[in-house]
Amino acid sequence: MSKVQVKSFSEAQELLSIGDEIDIELAFDVTTDEFFTLAKEWCCEGVKIKKGDKFFIVSRKNFFIPAMS
Length: 69
Fold this sequence. Notes:
By secondary structure, the protein is of the alpha+beta class. The protein has one domain: Translation Initiation Factor IF3. It has helices at 9-18, 32-42; strands spanning 2-6, 22-26, 48-51, 56-60.
């Protein structure tokens, strides 16, 4: 899995929208609104947000979700 450091909220959003398995280090001061926007839009799709040593880390793992029948 690749680890990428981003300097803006828009960069993080762009990388998450690609859908690849990735760790994104949010190397900027994340506002409350940005944090909760990430949580609201991406956590339901399997993205995890955790606090690193200095910055938040957003992790996306590829996983299979079976179709509803």
